[in-house]
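Hi R.,

Quick one: here's the DNA-binding NarL/FixJ family response regulator sequence you asked about.
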Amino acid sequence: MNDPAPTRILLADDHALVRRGVRLILDGEPDLTVVAEAADGAEALEQARAHRPDLAVLDIAMPRLTGLQAARELARTLPETRILVLTMYDNEQFFFEALAAGASGYVLKSVADRDLVEACRATMRGEPFLYPGAVNALIHHYLDLVREGRTLPAKAITDREEEILKLVAEGHTSQQIAGLLVISPKTVERHRANLLAKLGLRDRLELTRYAIRVGLIEP
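And here's the predicted structure, written out as tokens:
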């Protein structure tokens, strides 16, 4: 009987050295194969559309689109592609956002050599993969919500506004942002004005500081 075809993986990380190391781990397994790489979230979406991978392994902090933003778009447009977040951030906020964005698992880069292969296999079996700290965070958070009768807090800005905030903070012009997101420059300007009003900020500099503070871009 023939062995099943290996899981086809898209790997997205803005550091070439990290991609090389992760690729060595994954390609060393007979049931896993990396079919495409990307250096940012926007390229990850392009590669996903071109290659239709079974699994996308996404870093969080990347240029143009973060891994979380790319995950949301992947979950919407290519629901058959499963998503795994591979990150240096042991951070509850990012962990919950990753689950909300459609990720099936959350793996820390510091233990990727130990956890990543099993995380890929679990994700393809339809099982969630969470590192121990994330499991504790999930349980405590859920218990707090139940005890206080609360629901998850709404985000201050919409997903589209978050995409535009990141690109503005990275220094892209309205024309460039419009091209990347396939919307009109006028729509970009409207979203930008809404962002300033919602967040009580005055200009691009303050938007950039805010983007750094909430982890959309690295300082």
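Residues 132-148 form the longest helix (17 residues).

Cheers,
M.
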